[in-house]
Amino acid sequence: MNRELAVSVAESMAMEEAIFFNDIQKVPTSLDTGIAIDGQSELVRDALAQIENAEVLLPAFKLFIFTSEAKELHADLILNVFAGNLSPIDYANRFEPEWEENVLKLQNASEE
Known about the structure:
Radius of gyration: 18 Å
Number of domains: 2
Helix content: 55-70%
Shape: extended
Strand content: under 5%
Largest sheet: none
Order of helices and strands: HHHH
């Protein structure tokens, strides 16, 4: 596997997605695309205001998968979903307890 090529493709795809969200959806992204975001709809402004004013912000789903046990479980389950051996609902039901445990760990760590 050509890791450099894989990284390059992933970076390119991430940038294209960020450009879409900045230019078309008029929402900010964590990647700097150089696109000025103006002309946001009232709905977008309200949604962003709710996020900015939230008292508790939880990181994205992937950031909850921080223990080695959770990583192994997630890898095993998602491979079974891709192989057709597990439905997405079954994946969610089996992974939810681990995810909830990690959320609590993360919340407790942020309160300390």
